Amino acid sequence: MKNIKIIYLLVLLLSISSCKRYNVEENKDNTELIAQETKINKQEAQKIFNSKVNLTPLSEAGKYNISIPDNYMYQVTVYEEGNIDLVFGKIDFANRKDVVAIELTTALFPRERLCSQSVYVIKEENPNLISIPEIKKQLVKENYIYFEDSNSIIYGENFTVIHYEYDAAAKSYIIYNGEIDHFAKFPEKENLALHMLKNGKNLLKKDFIKVPFNSWEEYVLNSPKAEINLFSSIFNKLDKEMQAFLEPNQYVSPRSEGNYDYVTFYRANDAIERTYLNFLNAVKTNTIESFEIPEKISKDFEKIFFSYRYSLANKYSYSQIDNVTDLKITDSGYNNRVFEKLICKVQYDGKIFYLTTNEISDLTRDFYIKMFNYYSKNKTLDIPAIKK
């Protein structure tokens, strides 16, 4: 009997110290969700809201004027009346003309779909048509809410994120609506949801100064853990190949959970290494017209370093950032389109490897350069001071 009482007491204490939950069952009309403890600590949330981010303006005269992270891509759609079925507070999108919808996607994972993020712009004179209590009555059917403030909420199994603001200057509602992919397999979804909410809270920020990220450590400390962990899981696979399995002239392109590849890791033989260094020297000394790739290695060499775009008719240039070579190829066969590849030399136990990007753009270049240089020096992406 004494043991039963102790167990009962432990269960009671655990229930009291559990996360914030809003019990719909206790209020079937859903007129007011009943709050207990909070799951997301507001102090920790504020740290994420204040974390470093570089923004870029996104605007179209008379339609919208917002700020988004500068490594994000976007797609704008304007919906005619009746073509979008959403309701926030007293605003029924179906009855509105020219609803502007802006879909946001991080350029690091354009196809991975860790989450969906959209911004809606509604022209409206009345600034009092939306409130979080109204949104809770309309949308929160699940029995838990993770975070809430005066104009934001994170709730539900898929960590739905809603944030709204009224832009008095443009007389418009700016509504951010995001959701973590239901099938996304990663921990720390609360962290990603808070970074998503940070995007929403920055939409109307105008007075910002871009400050470059100085290191991979800065990216790790200021990025969603889900994004960093995705790359870490890929590079952990490279560790095993580097230490044991990869033979000379072999390469691997490990795939993410979503079955996409981002980098290629190649173990060089002596002929490949010598030819690559000769190529860089030919570009540097402007003698590329006399550079020749030995026939025995030409197919492998072009595949690793040029993605089959090598030609004496092309123009080449490169810059060196520590161990990373930023190679640019102006392809005469593609109307002089410029292709870019980052190539990082990695040395381990007397062996030479090359780590290369599969895709690169202005939006992702700096992230990859910092990540590649850190890995080439440390043979890991982990930061010891913050490793759990």
TrEMBL record:
<protein>
    <recommendedName>
        <fullName>Lipoprotein</fullName>
    </recommendedName>
</protein>
